[in-house]
Amino acid sequence: MKNMSPWWIRIPFFFFLIFALVEYFIDSGEKPAFLTYPIIQLFMLMVLLILIAIELIVKSVENVLFQTLSEEAKERYLSTQAKSWEWKWAKRTYKNLLGSKPIEEENEIIIDHNYDGIKELDNKLPPWWVYLFYATILFGVIYLARFHVFNDYDQDLEYEMEVAEAQAAIEEYRKTAKDLVDVNSVIMLTDASDLQAGEAIFETNCVVCHMADGGGGIGPNLTDEYWISGGGIKNVFKTISEGGRDGKGMIAWKQTLKPAEMAQVASYLLTFQGKEAANPKAAEGDIWVDENAPVKIETDTVAATINE
Ligand code: HEC
């Protein structure tokens, strides 16, 4: 049997055919199946190895059969192989795309004028060039229709879409990279694991001055609603990161703690709010009100209004 296609077309062809079938038949949601189920990568590797094995087996069978041929038949076989199909195919395509006449046939296209022996050939435009030219025309027509007739989108919109996409990607990344939090993006953590981590950090670094229950010692009381440098997660994060007022003893912890750890300890110490400390230090600073908090209806006033 004569093979009509070279191995470097056959193997990729069957490989991607099987791959496409796998992707088509295995339902894997939004992600491609080979990412959702890594076992498929192993499967495709096996497929590749099997395809290579088949090629090798066919080759060696051919080889064995070749040895059984008579000398004369061998010679004939080799001569057909030498001009093997793949090579001819590549050469033919190349020539067709170039579209030039071989030198021996040039007299067919010579133009009937000459100047001092300089002659001109009536060569056709090379097909590769012509096809490319047609392609640009087609592109131009589609482009014109899409962007100038149907006004698909303009550069401004494209820019905005890309920025929005990038923003979403950054948000997504921030979620996985907790250490990217800063004073602007920090939020109150509520996961038990984060609060436990915060407690551990507080116990190793902060209790000497703030006491285990936050009642205060060298440092101020953290259980009351009075804050020297502002309450709420953002201010507290900032104080921990940058330190307190100069010379008061509260250092900038950003040298020691990672951003994620500062967010954890800040969230943890805010759980002291409203709790009774064993030995509370007198309040320092001002009552801090969160300007961004949702408006709270004072229950007394409501009750008073109803009573009236
Ligand atoms: C060496 C003692 C010391 C240690 C250790 C210490 N602090 Fe402080 N902390 C202080 C002092 C003193 C202040 C008051 C700073 C000021 O007056 O500006 C303070 C202030 C604060 C405030 C602001 C309180 C307010 O009313 O605004 C927070 C929040 C705080 N500390 C958290 C921590 C955390 C978290 C740690 C551990 C990572 C820690 N501190 C470790 C001494 C300390």
Outline the secondary-structure elements.
Blueprint: H1 7-25, H2 33-36, H3 39-68, H4 71-82, H5 85-98, E1 110-115, E2 118-121, H6 127-149, H7 155-176, H8 192-205, H9 207-210, E3 226-227, H10 232-242, H11 259-270, E4 286-287, H12 299-307
Antiparallel strand pairs: 1-2, 3-4
Portion of residues within helices:
55-70%
Compute the number of strand runs: 4
For the biggest sheet, the summary is: 2 strands, antiparallel
- The N- and C-terminal alpha carbons lie at a distance of 104 Å
- Residue windows where pLDDT falls under 50 for at least 5 positions: none
CATH superfamily of the domain at 192-287: Cytochrome c-like domain
Counting DSSP H or I runs of 4 or more residues, the number of helices is 12
Broad structural category? mainly alpha
**Ligand set:** heme C
Radius of gyration: 39 Å
Overview of the structural elements:
This protein is mainly α and 308 residues long. Among the domains are: 7-93, no CATH class; 192-287, Cytochrome c-like domain (Cytochrome Bc1 Complex, Chain D, domain 2), CATH 1.10.760.10. Helix content is 56%, strand content 5%. It is built from twelve helices and four strands, in the order αααααββααααβααβα. It has a two-stranded antiparallel sheet with strand order 1-2. Helix 1 (7-25) runs antiparallel to helix 3, helix 8 packs across helix 11 and helix 10 crosses helix 11. The longest helix has 30 residues, at 39-68. The radius of gyration is 39 Å and the shape is elongated.
